[in-house]
Design a protein that fits this description.
The complex is a heterodimer. By secondary structure, chain A is α/β, with parallel strands linked by helices. Chain A has helices at 37-54, 69-78, 93-104, 126-134, 187-193, 232-242, and strands at 2-6, 9-11, 33-35, 57-64, 82-87, 111-115, 138-148, 151-158, 161-168, 171-175, 198-201, 210-216, 225-226. The chains are: A alpha/beta, B alpha/beta. Bound molecules: flavin-adenine dinucleotide (FAD) and adenosine monophosphate.
Chain lengths: 246, 318
Amino acid sequence: MKLLVCVSKTPDTTAKISFNSDGTKFNEAGVTFIMNPYDEWYALVRAIELVEKNGGTVTLINVGDASNDQTIRKGLAIGATDAVRINAEPKSSLFIAKQIAEYAKNENFDIVFTGKESIDYNGSEVGAMIAEFLDLPFISFANKLDMNGNTATMQREIEGGVEIVEVETPFALSAAKGMAEQRIPNMMGIMKAKSKPFKVVNPVAFPDYAAPIHFDLPNEKGGVKLVDPDDMDELVRLLHEEAKVI
Amino acid sequence: MVLVFAEATNGQFKKAAFEAVTYGFKTAQSLGTQCLALTLGNVENGGQLGQYGAAKVYNVADASLNSFDSQVYASVIAQAAENLGATVIVLCHNSTGKSLIGRLAAKLNAGSVSAVKSLPDTNGGFKVKKGVYSGKATATYDITSDIKIVSLASNEVRPAKSGNDVAMEELSLNVPASKVKVLEVKRQEGIVPLPEAEIVVSAGRGMKGPENWGIVEELAQAMGATTACSRPVADADWRPHHEHVGQTGVAIRPNLYIALGISGAIQHLAGVNQSKTIVVINKDPEAPFFKAADYGVVGDLFDVVPRLTAAVKKFKAG
Ligand SMILES: Cc1cc2nc3c(=O)[nH]c(=O)nc-3n(C[C@H](O)[C@H](O)[C@H](O)COP(=O)(O)OP(=O)(O)OC[C@H]3O[C@@H](n4cnc5c(N)ncnc54)[C@H](O)[C@@H]3O)c2cc1C
Ligand SMILES: Nc1ncnc2c1ncn2[C@@H]1O[C@H](COP(=O)(O)O)[C@@H](O)[C@H]1O
């Protein structure tokens, strides 16, 4: 099986989010970056498990600058076969998807894995875009994936339940919690990662149709209003009269 | 034209469809154009979308559209958009919308922004706002392509009636064969799914064990709320996984979120911080959740929760 896993670099889940003074750029000072958890824990690990069982390769792909290399190497250390970085600033979802699709279109991947969303842009867009560019079926929020020959059985999350679907390769998916368990890279993996094939390719020209132009931090909450634990009638009154939510 | 895709489940619209049509109508007004609605597959009483501002409601009745496949849906919606001359497409940011928005953008060579929480500012551009960094910030996007696609976050726009029922017109479009076989759909009946719930009662490790959840359920029932939980609670199998909210679970934005015995870790907040009103009940006055709360009760939840339930029942009884 030939598998492609799209990985993005995001701020750590505990990172304090701030922007430059005119609100146009994310402030990276003091921020630790990680591989987007959905890409790493679920998509990548499941891809590796499938290849361990059935044979094949897992290629990592990322659209970003050289500061993403560390994240990509971690993916190699966890067990991916090789990696490609498309050397461009990932400013909009359609641009990112176009770059990945251009690379993938002649490579005949059986499955294209993405995460259910990136925890910085929270778009849930890139996976479906790649699928459309490559004219592949797309299964979103898959939390189970089992292969039987070329047939995949998947469970996907829907509002208030799940759907079980069947699809033949090639297809694309977005991975949600449950598809696999996080793997910590070991020393041997980290050593091996250093000599695994890692290509950097140039982007194709494509516009940014929808890029962020400004960032705001939420207004500070006015401070919590404490209610006497013996007076829950008062809490109900506040929720009804002040917050107007009941 | 503004085209709204209004999804029906088993023939019925949910609130999100009315929200999206309301949003589409207001967007069309600011652009000086009309709002049209599109429904796919079996739908009952589609004409009611007229009440929320759809000038026309179209339906593609092909029975294969009763089960969802993003590839087929995107093809049909794109054809409708082209036939009807749509320049703005509005979807709901639910599991269907999330699977579609990217596909449509790629198909129509259009800029898209998902989970928008504001009407577009159409003064010299098409600017919309959405939550980013898991709700820790808001970004303004400018969409510069000819066709613009947005998906609307839930609970952001109140459905507003502005018109009357209209007739539903049949659109005849090419419906491609699906490559995805839906083997089974399992939905829990009788509860509002978490992403759609207006009131959520959520509980964490402070509950001590699954045997104590009775008081959570009683409060939820009294309030007409859906129940949720923190991640360790789901990981320990005290509660089913679909109840897990937060960074790695479901992200929700109800009008009211009530947290019982949850400390308020940053990854938990990431999934709930866009709730309109947050109530925290915790015995530790230093619990970080109080900083994100609108109302707080410092006390033992095993005493406070039954009292709150009683107060809610009294209030509802009027
Ligand atoms: C990458 C990553 C992703 C994560 N994603 C998520 C996520 O999606 N969702 C999530 O929830 N967590 C997530 N976590 C875990 C998160 O960091 C916290 O560990 C978790 O949210 C804590 O759950 P809790 O508040 O239920 O438990 P605790 O932190 O143990 O808090 C229990 C609280 O109950 C209070 N309490 C105890 N007894 C009582 C009583 N009798 N009356 C009233 N109050 C009482 C205590 O004061 C305490 O504040 C993630 C962690 C990581 C590292
Ligand atoms: N810059 C990127 N490079 C590679 N893959 C990406 C990039 N950005 C997003 N993705 C993939 O697309 C998924 C969804 O991202 P998003 O649409 O931003 O929520 C992520 O989980 C990744 O798998």
